[in-house]
Amino acid sequence: MTRPYYIAGNWKMHKTRSEAAELAKSLVVQLKGGKHTYLVAPGFTCLETVGAIVKGSNILLGAQNMASEEQGAHTGEVSVLQLKDLGVQAVILGHSERRHTYKEDDELINKKVKLALRHGLEVILCIGELLSEREAGQAENVCETQTVKGLAGVSVSDLERVTLAYEPVWAIGTGKTATPEDADAIHAYVRGVIAKLYGKDAAEKIIIQYGGSVKAENAAQLMAKENIDGALVGGASLKADTFVPIALFG
User: What is residue 122's three-state secondary structure?
Assistant: First the structure.
């Protein structure tokens, strides 16, 4: 089965509104006619600005996180209702920085996943192991646990709005990248986990991105692999001249 490639840019805690607008305008022009699926995820304060610019283009508007509750007394949180109000179409959940810096566990991430899906958003669910876990031979187990627990209670029909992103934690922002072979092996293993949970057809369909120091120099090699269906790009997504070559590969 030929799956569509999905290239997402996670801008993390970068860009003022004017800077975000400048980048978004450039991407709308340069990615017009691109043959893959594209998404940008600016910071919360830039969502409305960027959303107005990418509206009607081939670029989806994503958020980097959201609260686990629909609304209420949750100071400092941003709700799914607020995101939808801004035109957000997808949300990144379970990013390694949320898991390891902000101590979000699988149960909390699962709650967010189900809430986002219930409100019609698409989800990019991030999974990935620490360096110590890889060195201990636990990479597959960690990714399986995060996948199974992250998707608990998600129906096969809702799974169609879920993209997985494998991001080995030791490769994020470090300049280190899993070899294409190492990355593909984990992607294939996780696809097998999906097959056990949801059946072979669902496993064939699900898009699994790779994230972790993706650059123009390694993107084509990574995405040439059978089980790698795109990229969740961090640092290289902050400039058009480093993101566009990744987005328009092939």
Answer: strand
C-beta atoms surrounding 209 within 10 Å: 25
The CATH number of residue 142's host domain is: 3.20.20.70
Two tokens at 219?
Answer: 């993107």
Contact predicate 128/176, CB 8 Å:
no
Cα–Cα distance measured from residue 11 to residue 239, given in angstroms and rounded to the nearest whole number = 10
- Compute the C-alpha angle 172/175/181, nearest 5°: 80
The answer to whether residue 118 sits within a structural domain is yes
Contact 109, 150 (CB under 8 A): yes
Determine the Cα–Cα distance for residues 31 and 29; give it in Å rounded to an integer: 6
Q: Which domain holds residue 202?
A: 6-247
The model's pTM: 0.97
pLDDT value, residue 171 = 83
- Where in the sequence numbering do the catalytic residues fall? 95, 167
**DSSP symbol at 88:** -
Distance CA 128, CA 98 (A): 12
Q: Name the DSSP class of 4.
A: P
Place of tokens 């056990």: 196
Running DSSP on this structure, what letter comes out for residue 71? S
Tell whether 153 is covered by a domain. Answer: yes
Residue-wise pLDDT for 179-235, tens only, equals: 999 999 999 999 999 999 999 999 999 999 999 889 999 999 999 999 999 999 999
